What does this fold into?
Amino acid sequence: MLLDRLVSCPYCGETFEVVLDCSAGSHEFVQDCEICCQPIVFLLVVACDGSLERLELRREND
Ligand SMILES: [Zn+2]
It folds into this structure.
């Protein structure tokens, strides 16, 4: 179950699209910003029915 989401980078504030994989369940992953290339930590929380419950972004060194 793949989901496109618009997110805004916690470093540069630019908006870009990420593809989330809800079938993997709740997990954290790191992906570089498409604009400033800094590593963003994504916290993906998936509900028990497989839908996206919450998405949080933070800087890697916070
Ligand atoms: Zn950025």
About this structure: The chain has a mean pLDDT of 95. The pocket of zinc ion is lined by residues 9, 11-12, 14, 33, 35-36, 38 (CB under 6 Å).
